[in-house]
Amino acid sequence: MGILIGCEKISHEWPGKKVLSEQTIGINEGDRIGIVGKNGDGKSTLLQLISHTLEPDSGVVTWRGGIGVGYLSQVDALDNTATIHQAVVGDMPDYEWASNPTIREILSALLPDVDWEGIVGELSGGQRRRVDLARVLIGNWDVLLMDEPTNHLDMGAISWLAEHLTQRWQNGQGALLVVTHDRWFLDKVCLNMWEVHDGVIDPFEGGYSAYIQQRVERERQAAVIEERRQNMLRKELNWLAHGAKARTSKPKFRIDAAMELIANDPPLRNPLELKRLAIARLGKMVIEMKDAGFSYIDTKKPIFSHIDWLIGPGDRYGILGENGAGKTTLLKLMTGRTQPTQGSVRVGKSVRFGFLTQNLDALADKQNWRVNEVLHQYKSSYYIDGKAYSPERLLERLGFDTRELMSRVCDISGGQARRLAIMCVLLEEPNVLVLDEPGNDLDTDMLAILEDLLDSWPGSMLVVTHDRYVMERVTDNQFALIDGKLRHVPGGVDEYLRLLKTSSNRTALAEKPIVGGRVGVTADVSYPGAAGIQKLSNAQVRELRKRHDSVERKLATASKKPTQITQLMHTVDPTDFAKLQQLQEELEQAQARVEELEIQWLELEEALEEQKHA
Predict the structure, then answer these.
(1) Which has the closest alpha carbon to 608: 550, 552, 544, 554?
(2) From CA 532, how far away is CA 235, in angstroms rounded?
(3) How far apart are CA 84 and CA 128, in angstroms?
(4) Taking 90 as the threshold, does the pLDDT of residue 387 lie above it?
(5) Which of 233, 395, 399, 582 is most deeply buried (CB count within 10 A of its CB)?
């Protein structure tokens, strides 16, 4: 494998903080590298240096001659006056990108709801992000640098992106560097990890899980070395304490220094913790929804409808769904912030909600407040395990430095703002936590701390997140909003993605180029290659449609089988290994059958679409 990019003794410093100090590291063909580290430790700076969008204070970044490097930054540089068409494919002729199946797949996956001839300046933040991601992905790059590519993507799109990146190059070709807090994505895509911290870059072999194991082992070895050092100090202190009297007065300064060294034993990195606060007791009923639904006044189609759902004390539920499926609206409905347009929603009398919104609404009108002023809204002390803690002390346990308490809210980072908002929610001492994308802007270490905190949460919990690790770690059951209906998914995220794929296959049109209209929706145009499609007779087309309809019916039946088997597995005695093994084999066979029928359906659907253009 040849080297593609070399970084030799690179250093860079921002005002008040040195993020890289004489680091030498290389990117080789075949590398798939995930970059992790705490917020502000230099992950994005490293990508900027490698992409040549930022010059290092010292050192040099060298590209191999002739390579192409694609870079997705956190902030796009799209022209607000350009059309989506121009922003994504530029001056590329329509026939060129429209006849490329890879480009069509990218556009269909990322921009199904975007007007192809719309103006960039009129897009939402999430749509702009997906347009910029599509722009980068359609390029033919030797090295791809991506800074938080999963931002604004739902689980289905994240799963697609991971699959795309794993198949983008053959083994041993191309290179990928990605900064993301999505740990499932890191495990799925990356073969190596770089940890950026304290001005250095530590490389690790394997994906995120392997990195965590190796880091724990490194910390264990550091702890062993520190324990040996302390043992030596204790022996010296013991000798000084029991040695000849003539020696006892002479080395007193050494005794004091040694005792201080032991007392101030430096902890391992990231030792942050936060024990749960006391909460009010919940009654038997928390939230009861009966035939509930919601639709906006100016739209006829409901966002969701006919939801019957009972949430009791201690229930920990995750809500899955695509962007725009209505997850946030559902949370607002359940907490009384929005009233249903159909059915009813009842909330228990003893319920005290703690609602962390996506946009951190609790801090919206406090941007000019200092952090300590925000905390002064709450009680001056909280008792945990019989000890009193101030809000400032508790916030320090979530990674805030004492000096940062005087910072204005508008000046702190996105990760700090989210941690502050989480603390504000907890200081209200709720008994029902409602979390809408709690992991946004948090680094991987802080996500782990948040998960530990939520693990011990004794109240009820409703969580909306596109982070699979958070979803599967902190919730016990998952429910999915699909096509306006809420359904339980006993198989978790994997089952949801299969259901989503089946639902998409039924509604998605075959991959065809788009000129005008919306990306992913075919337009009535001709395209290169259409003339070469064999025109079938009417009888042959009818036969093709019969086969299509037959496969569709079989797919509808087969799609129910995995869910039925999964539900049955939950009723089997956990110690009956033979029965569980049998059901697992049946489940795998059922899933394989669904995949086989889906492929047949897609092939027949595409063939029918081709006949329309033949």
Answers:
(1) 544
(2) 87
(3) 9
(4) no
(5) 395
Burial status of residue 285 (CB atoms within 10 A of its CB: 0-12, 13-18, 19 or more): middle
Question: DSSP letters of 17-53?
Answer: EEEEEEEEEEEETT-EEEEE--TTSSHHHHHHHHTTS
User: What architecture is domain 3-212?
Assistant: 3-Layer(aba) Sandwich (3.40)
| Separation between Cα atoms, residue 308 and residue 319, nearest integer Å | 14
Q: For 30-58, what is the mean pLDDT?
A: 91
Burial of 236 (0-12, 13-18, 19+ CB in 10 A): middle
Residue type, 5: I
CATH 3.40.50.300 corresponds to the domain 287-488: yes
> CA separation (Å) from 17 to 14, 198, 404?
5, 10, 14
- Helix extents (H) in 81-179: 84-89, 94-98, 101-110, 125-137, 155-167
Q: Which of 511, 494, 484 is nearest to 595 (CA)?
A: 494
Instruction: Write out pLDDT tens, residues 211-241.
Output: 887 777 777 777 777 777 676 666 555 555 5
Q: Which of helix, strand or coil describes residue 364?
A: helix
Got the DSSP string for 263-308? HTPPPPS-----PPPP-PPP-S-SEEEEEEEE--TT-SS-SEEEEE
- Which letter, b or e, does each residue of 295-319 get, where b requires 16 or more Cβ atoms within 10 Å of its Cβ? beeeeeeebbbebebebebebbbbb
515 vs 122, 278, 532, CA distance in Å? 19, 59, 20
Helix (H) / strand (E) containing 604: helix 577-613
Q: Is 362 helix (H, G, I), strand (E, B) or coil?
A: helix
pLDDT at 242: 53
By CB atoms closer than 10 A (0-12, 13-18, 19+), residue 200 is middle
Q: Which residues have a Cβ under 8 Å from the Cβ of 590 and sit 6 or more positions away? A: 558, 561, 562, 565
Tokens describing residue 519: 């990306």
Specify the 3-state DSSP secondary structure of 375: helix
- pLDDT for the residue numbered 594: 81
Write out the two tokens for 563: 């869910």
* pLDDT range class, residue 27, cuts 50, 70, 90: very high
Least confident of 45-49, 85-89, 170-174, 383-387: 383-387
User: Residue 93, class by beta-carbon neighbours within 10 Å (0-12 exposed, 13-18 middle, 19+ buried)?
Assistant: exposed
